[in-house]
Amino acid sequence: DTAVSQTPKYLVTQMGNDKSIKCEQNLGHDTMYWYKQDSKKFLKIMFSYNNKELIINETVPNRFSPKSPDKAHLNLHINSLELGDSAVYFCASSQVLSESPYNEQFFGPGTRLTVL
Amino acid sequence: RKEVEQDPGPFNVPEGATVAFNCTYSNSASQSFFWYRQDCRKEPKLLMSVYSSGNEDGRFTAQLNRASQYISLLIRDSKLSDSATYLCVVNMVIRGGSTLGRLYFGRGTQLTVWP
User: Fold this and answer.
1) pLDDT at residue A2 greater than cutoff 90
2) Contacts B100 to A, Cβ<8 Å
3) How close is the nearest chain B Cα to the Cα of A51, in Å?
4) Facing residues of A32 across strands?
5) What is the b/e burial string over A28-47, where b = at least 16 CB atoms within 10 angstroms of the residue's CB?
6) Mean of the pLDDT values across residues B77-102?
7) Model confidence over B83-93: pLDDT tens digits?
8) Is B50 on the interface with A (CB under 8 A)?
9) Does A99 have pLDDT greater than 60?
10) Residue B85, φ and ψ in degrees, nearest 5
């Protein structure tokens, strides 16, 4: 069984459109994250939620809106897509918000977004 | 300055070689350190956590030098299957002494092991 799943795996769309990416984890974790990995391969955190509560909101345009209907799901909605939004978006989860070295983050397979 | 800096490589080594990757981090209050591995077009996966005293997991040895804010990963007896990008990851303290689970990733060091 997949621990962290994302849909869709690939998303090709036109500039100006609105799209959503869904994420689900079946690990029973309390915390979920969205990361963006750009063409230079830098992986940067965008948001994190702990028990459905927004904890981290990096400097991300407000066209990006996360939603956590329950602690197993964290979706990402993007309005008015721009060329620069093209990237791979990874969802991740971890057991708790913690400094512990045991607090491994488990990543989903990624959604490759291409904006034309 | 980036929070976590790594030499991007690429490192191209023959099977059986020993290879070492280095990484520096900017926040001296950082608490937790990791090496993640990312295969081409796949998600990152935890390779190993890095403990203050250094730790070993089979052919992999991780070292931490807090004074120099430096982390290393040594791979002995390289295998073809070790070919991947290795990401140095640090859990940064951001406010009130908390990290809020925030991980900062280096851009990764690409390793190719050839037969």
Assistant:
1) no
2) 48, 55-56, 97
3) 13
4) A49, A93
5) ebbbbbbbbbeeebbbbbbb
6) 82
7) 999 999 998 76
8) yes
9) no
10) -105, 130
DSSP A20-63: EEEEEE-S--SEEEEEEE-TT--EEEEEEEETTEEEEE-S--TT
pLDDT, average across residues A73-86? 96
Is-cis flag, bond preceding B8, omega within 30? Answer: no
Confidence of residue B96 (pLDDT cuts 50, 70, 90): low
Is the distance from CB of B115 to CB of B15 less than 8 angstroms? Answer: yes
Nearest chain B alpha carbon to A5: B43
- Closest CA relative to residue B2, chosen from B30, B35, B26: B26
Place of tokens 């908390």: B98
Average pLDDT across chain B, whole number: 90
pLDDT at A54 over 60: yes
The C-alpha atoms of residue A64 and residue A44 are separated, in whole angstroms, by 14
Rounded CA gap, B50 and B52, in Å?
7
CA distance A43 to chain B (A): 6
Give the span between the Cα atoms of B115 and B100, in whole angstroms. 43
| Tokens standing for residue A1 | 């069984």
Cβ count near B39 (within 10 Å): 12
Amino acid found at B76: R
Give the span between the Cα atoms of A49 and A58, in whole angstroms. Answer: 12
B52: its two tokens: 């203050």
Task: For residue B21, count other CB atoms closer than 10 A to its CB.
Answer: 22
